[in-house]
Amino acid sequence: MAIYNLVSFAGIFILLAIAWGISRVVFRHQGTINWHLIGWGIGLQLLFALFIFIVPTGVKLFQHINDLAVLVLSTASEGAKFLFGPLAAPPGTKDSIGFILAFQAFPTIIFFSAVVAILYYYNVLPFVIRLFAKLFTKFMRISGAEALCATSNIFVGVESAFTIKPYIGNMTRSELCTVLTAGMATVASNVLALYVFTLHVEFPSIAGHLISASFLSAPAALVMAKLIFPETGTPVTLGKDVDVHYERESSLFEAIINSSGAAVKVVFSIAALLIAVLGLVALFDVVIGTIGAKINLFTGLTLDWSLKGILGYIFYPLTLIIGIPLEDAGIISRIIGERLILTEVASYQDLAAALSSNMLSNPRSAVVAAYALCGFAHLASMAIFAGGVTALAPERTAAVSKVAFKALIAATFACLMTACVAGTFFTDTSILFG
Question: Dihedral through CA 356, CA 361, CA 363, CA 366, nearest 10?
């Protein structure tokens, strides 16, 4: 196993080199690289992963966090069971008729949105966000607005843009790229519950791993964003601590009502997106698959011409770089690659299916893949985050549009970097797969 730990460690620097090359050669950016940020970003990730995976106290803390998350998750389904009956009963429980995404996993989004709203109302999350933002601003020498947005994305999704609303209008293009990258390289806590629900039967320690990934991804996003789009200007809030901007509800009950209503929109957006995208992918597979079959027949090749297959080929080298064992690389590359189009929801479902079918020969593959998938790094999210930022600052629409695709690339590399960090320290005796 040690060889794969070394591969993952080397993968961190290979990904950095590739990102730097894309910035200089493809996008022709000539801004000065903030090596101080790069060093601190990598260092913070390695120290956090070392504590969680290797240090006994960190391992115990990880296990407690995982158990707490699973316990809270078990209470999240009570409302769904009341509404939907056996349809909401998870697999393996009384009266369950099997796993149904819409009735078992989606309701957790609404529940956890209410939990986050309560933490916001009592100023718990704003306090934690300010604390992390100050650390990032001080040690990484970035703008306060960038640091605040990156730390907000550890806990919330597109709503993180509201925390820096007063500063968006004066942000440099590099800062805007960082804002979008941070959004797409991380996941919101309410949606994270969906992934835990999807995987925890086959992967009991998934909650702790995904929470760990959320914290690791924030500095990774800052590192990759500044490599892909180096700063060429002078941010207004450079080196300054800025406060969280948010509108506090007048009562706790109002906060719960508003958050639950917003979560319903998220649920329907995810459902609509999955219906549309999965249907379009099936149509693509029919058309390209027919053409590809004729090419295979003519050339004697046996290539997979489905969209998953094509993306799997593209991401195969990157899958090897992050330290996935060779025997599982083909399966995992398809799962990681499809996230770009199908969203991480479909990818986590496919990872769960691969585990339940015993398709993976090495537990390491599932752990590293779980970290690589823990982010909104896909085309739909790029549109959502870009739209969210421009809605708050319409005058920056042109600038946001120009950096959106670069941010998607940076976010993808940030997720892969997070997987490398996890793969560097993962062993059979650190955090058990089960």
Answer: -60
